[in-house]
Amino acid sequence: MIKFLFDRDTWQELYDSIRKNKLRTLVTIFGVGFGIFLLIVLLGSARGMENSFNSYSAISQQIPCLFGDKVLANLLKDFKKAEGYA
User: pTM above 0.90?
Assistant: First the structure.
């Protein structure tokens, strides 16, 4: 395996292939670079969303529960009255 990397013939063949197929080489380099860029953007977005969800959950744990049984029952009763169900 290591001998293959240091073989002069291998590097000569690689250089010849790159020289003959310039467009394919440029498109491949662009594709790999764009893929790495997208990976970084998506990982950064995921981390940002995770941080925002964590901060929201920390804030929501500090706020007392607004929808206790009595409050929820009163809201439901008011809703039914407004819609004409009660």
Answer: no
